[in-house]
Write a sequence for this structure.
């Protein structure tokens, strides 16, 4: 997967309006007491990957980027199993934040061909995306649930364009994953290479819905709409972008 160095002019998703609404609601509803009863809206409360979505959720997910300790605590609170792996690699391809999450059929968190190694924030975002965006979209649009995801890998020690100069890819540190398809519980399989172009069909509608939903959890979301290099997969990474994301 190669990303062009210059991104097209597309606005970042920013949570300023969310914060403004949060402050206004806090003032109207009694501030501290109301936020204590509704921690999903409180940016100071730890993120609950299993809990209801709130106005501060995207901010709190973004806060896990680059903070493996806080991120692993979030996985523990949510009962998400994982195996922490020793750091490996050198230089720009050093992977200090390295783990493998456990398969979880109940949540649909089975990744094939193997459960990949990735950063904690990628794994946390995957779980949140599956619970709050992928499964609801599958049930609503396809009348079924997702049983597993097909991926093309997480780690690749290279620069964005695969050349000798330029920025390093988020894949260089395992801080990205490429998703190529979804298998449903009834056995149907959807792939970006075969189903993305059918925008008017349920399969194409589902893929667009989960692409848009990923923008609420990941720092970067690139799809077939970005360029031909992404015609067969979603690139999802946790590049640190403050509280926004780049989605295309």
């Amino acid at each position: 997967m190669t990303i062009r160095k210059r991104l097209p002019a597309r606005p970042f998703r920013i949570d300023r309006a969310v914060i403004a609404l949060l402050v206004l609601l806090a003032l109207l509803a009694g501030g501290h007491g109301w936020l204590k009863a509704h921690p999903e809206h409180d940016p100071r409360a730890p993120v609950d990957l299993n809990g209801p979505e709130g106005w501060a959720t995207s901010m709190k997910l973004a806060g896990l980027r680059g903070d493996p300790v806080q991120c692993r605590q979030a996985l523990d609170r949510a009962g998400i199993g994982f195996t922490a792996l020793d750091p490996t690699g050198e230089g720009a391809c050093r992977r200090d934040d390295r783990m493998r999450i456990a398969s979880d059929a109940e949540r649909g968190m089975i990744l094939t061909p193997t459960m990949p190694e990735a950063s904690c924030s990628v794994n946390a975002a995957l779980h949140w995306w599956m619970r709050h965006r992928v499964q609801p979209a599958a049930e609503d649009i396809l009348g079924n649930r997702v049983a597993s995801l097909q991926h093309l890998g997480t780690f690749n020690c290279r620069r964005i364009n695969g050349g000798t100069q330029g920025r390093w890819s988020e894949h260089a540190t395992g801080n990205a994953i490429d998703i190529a398809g979804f298998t449903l519980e009834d056995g149907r399989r959807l792939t970006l290479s075969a189903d993305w172009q059918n925008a008017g069909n349920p399969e194409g509608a589902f893929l667009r819905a989960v692409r848009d939903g990923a923008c609420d959890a990941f720092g970067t979301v690139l799809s077939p709409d970005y360029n031909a290099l992404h015609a067969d997969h979603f690139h999802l990474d946790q590049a640190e972008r403050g509280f926004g994301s780049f989605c295309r």
Remarks:
- The beta strands are 82-84, 99-101, 111-112, 117-118, 146-151, 176-184, 189-191, 220-222, 234-237, 246-247.
- The helical segments are 16-29, 32-37, 57-63, 68-77, 120-142, 192-195, 202-214.
